[in-house]
Model the fold of this input.
Amino acid sequence: MKKKNVFDSNFFQKHGHTMIIYGFLFALMLFVSLFNESFFTLGNLKNLLRSSMPLLMVGLGQTLIILTGGIDLSLGGIVALGNVVCVTLMDPDSPAGFLMPVAVTLLMGLACGACNGLMITKGRLAPIIVTIATTAVFDGLALLIMPKPGGSVHRAFARAMTRGLGGAAPLLLFLVVLFLIRRLTNHMPYGKALRAIGGSENAAYSTGIRVERVKLLAYTLAGLLCAIAGIFLSAQINSADATIGKNYAMNAITATVVGGTAMTGAVGDPLGTVAGVFIIAIINNMLNLFGVSSFYQFVCQGLILIVALSFSALRKKHS
Amino acid sequence: MRNLDGYLRSARNGAEIIKGGYILSDNKGKEPLLKMENITKRFAGITALDQVSFSCEKGEVHILAGENGAGKSTILKILSGIHQADSGEITWKGQKVTIKDPQQSQKLGIAMVYQELTLVGEMTVAENIFLNQEPTKPFGGINQKEIKRRIQEIMDRYGIHIDPDVIVNTLPVAQQQMAEILKILIRDPELIILDEPTSALAKKEVEQLYAIVRNLTAMGKTIIFISHRLEELFALGDRITVFKDGHYVGTRKMKEIDEEELIRMMVGRSLENIFPPALCAPEPDKIIFEVSDLTDSEGKLNHISFQVQKGEVLGIAGLQGHGQSELLNAISGLYNLTGGKVMVNGQKVTVKNAGQAIANGIALVPADRKNQGLMLELSNRHNLAVSSMKKRMKGPFIDKKAESSFVEDMVKRLAIKIGNVELPVSSLSGGNQQKVVLGKELATEPKVILFDEPTRGIDVEAKREFYTIMHQLAADGVAVIMNSSDMMEIIGMSDRVMVMYEGRITGILKKEELNEELIMQYAMGLQKNEEEAGA
Amino acid sequence: MSNRQNGGRTVSTAALLKQCTENAQVMVYVILLVLLLLAQILSPGYLKPSHVAGILRLASFMGIAAIGQNLTILTGGIDLSIANTITFANIIGAQLMMGRDENMLKAFLAVIVMGLVIGTVNGAGIRFLKIPPFIMTLGVGTVVQGIFLIYTKGAPKGNAAPFLRSICGQSMFGIISGIVIFWLIFAVAAVIILKKTPYGRKIYSVGINEQAARFSGIHTGWMIFSVYMLSAVIAAIAGFLLVGYTGTSFLDVGTSYNTKTIAAVIIGGTAISGGKGGYLGTVAGAVIMTVLDDFLTIVSIPEAGRQIMQGVIILMLVLIYSREKKK
Done:
């Protein structure tokens, strides 16, 4: 009997915040469905997932990094660069014209992430300042490659990405990525190392964890996820825009924080981030629905971030 | 390997029995397990270790002794790969090795329980124990069943029982310490280093730890043990090596050395020469500082009341983490109180923050010089002046001339060995850094001065100077309160000693009745003063 | 101007050299000098007084805004709401001035109040809720952006009062623009406050070791609160003055200022970890950033290229400075 109780309290300790945030998400969905009868239709849910896809990818990447106690403000830059690179290289006419661009974009994402990671680990620089600087570099590169929005995407590829398998393709992609990331963070030694570094870098180091390698991999994986976001965006909007990444870094932070990951690292769950992304998406959706100008989205997102941070700060104070 | 007598040893009579049964000479001619030769290590120009040597034989408990700052921690951190030696040789099982990081040290079979714990507070006990050591399943996932099984096994074997699924932060320090030890044991090392493992443990846990150490040596493991409790050294140790000020002093068999000789080796002189005589007698009817009924919200302080007489040095003793630091911090405005009052010279004062406490004449020389006392990368001038800037103003600006002469005076008064006042304070030795902290506080002209572990990590010469200054302050009518975990210091310096246990005062002892054993009894909550029982 | 300053110091070459290599704040003036000479060689006539005056005029907005960034970075924080604060101040300023001198005071006061509000929110979140500065200011910045978008409905109105225009114009005192004089006054005040007053000392103390500062009796919470307050107000002033330069306001007039002010501060030798550096170097940092931008424009490198340059320079300098620290 006693054993069971201990287990329960531990379960709640571990997953309590994730459960609360999902509770909130479902409440929000119900609330929206009161005003929008078509909310729970398959088409709308597919739409919701499709429009949230890029942020889901970036958010999962940001979560990896925040778990180490770091931060990456340049993720939006990588998304934009991914979008631009992917579209520029695309050959809409050749049947396999999407293969090379996708591969190159993925490699580019890895390289950008590794670049951040190397500066932070080998250069021993603060993540904020490195990624502020690389934001300028990535944004600049994207703009250099494509000064004006445009380009076109391989048709079949775009359709397969966004609507393939009867519209289940994005869902499948999302589930596979989520499964892999969550397995990494919650069920594999790497995740423990990630969290240990976030909790106490010194403790991790003296326990024999290769701190630099673990961190580098986190930044690199985040870069890769941003490249996937960039590719997906290309398929979704059928063109490229060098400024498309602007708000991703911040929204990804918001989603991560709303999802219950502590800014100080160690504590958090990618599943929570997913809920965070959907909450942001639904609120934006709702604002559109009520005909509120899109300008309010900025205020809203900023407020969500601050409120979520305040909550987690107050929670910490009380515990 | 080991004589059966090893099992018989117990904490209480360890010093007397069985030393004869132990066969050290067996190892003669054989390579020692570990040999460190001529190790030198410098930090920012300060020599922490100067050509020291040290060796360990398989199956022994080797005590490493010396005062704080003697270099014990440094040599062990070199051994565990945290620091790298500037020069010198390490031989492990007859092989020359260089240890360049903690991973390598672990691979060799060396494990260390650090003074500052290396647990990740946000993770569970089990996660911490198996950190970087997780057994995995075919697809790379962590094998939770295997973890459960092995934790159960090791907990049973050593008789330590902690709920493995509990988040470390929520455990008391003593249990965290045990978790840390489990984390080491699971790695099955050959050489285990325990750096002051008992400083936060109560009696029951200390005995548990002794049992673990004996269990380990019986299995042929080797232990390096650091402690400040003399009785502990004699109860556990086979051999002892003493360091002093970064130099090697000597190695002895525990059974061939007595307390007096040990202290002489550690300190370099006998006790009377370290602690200077008091300059005045306390005046029991003149109360210059008083607190009553101090409480906090976390239960670290439970209705604390005491008084300081004019001319006395009041010592505070107790096991680590029983509210001593919180008490000093609370009085100096750095820890939130929920009730009680603080009175300086009969006047009630408020101490909501450190600035207010300083304005009311209360100064604190904090325990952690590097994190709480100094801005290491800023100049000596900055550090000395920072708490008392308002005293030397010219309109809205700092009067640079007045400040220079103030700094010069303070350097002279405390005999601080300083190259240039504009250099960062990190360029000074530990003792001189601590003097800068003291100078910073004295500059506020305090009526009450609180010392928290005032001589941690400084050499004997500087200690003696510190003690002299304390007596001088007491003679000048300043209320002097000193918290220390160094028993010799407490006994040598205090006119009265207040012992704390679980946030309460369990006893106030007069100078005549001071001895280590009695203080420890109060510190473990085994005795209570009649006069305090009511409070 | 900066040329002269360096010339005056060459009393002992050896001492100067030693100081240069040890003190980033001096090194940055050497870098500036080299950069200017290089520009002169590659583009003759670059150093003619009127052009230099123009560069200083451009640099002064960044320089003024960087004072606030410098303060927050010295305490170990950062302010990422500067960009949107500048834009908002610019919008409010233009809208309330409506091109008339008599509206100037009203507009100025409104801008100051706006700065105070933003600073209070930033400071309160960072001080009381202990939210990391960069993320608090990032969030507040986004809110501010939303507010000015709503306020203008995407189309800012209004324009600068003639007097403000003349202050920020080409020549007020000979070829020196009034804004440069402003900057000079601000700069002198910033340097004096940092070097000579208890407030300055406390900023350094907090930046190096907040806990030790608290143990030394410094009200660290108030110090942190106040620097974000100052940063927002100074950014607001910079945004207001910028109206005089641009004439009207734009929605992205301040966008680049986060990166630019951080770059100026870091190039100027202030440590990103806090507690080390000062405003003197930042002045040179602001000029260097402006010269680079200007020179790259002259050799017709597009905006994107200049942006990349900014990022690379920040990275290079933090790498160099942190390497020095390790030794």
Summary: Residues 1-11 of chain C have pLDDT under 50 and may be disordered. Chain C touches chain B through 21 residues (CB under 8 Å).
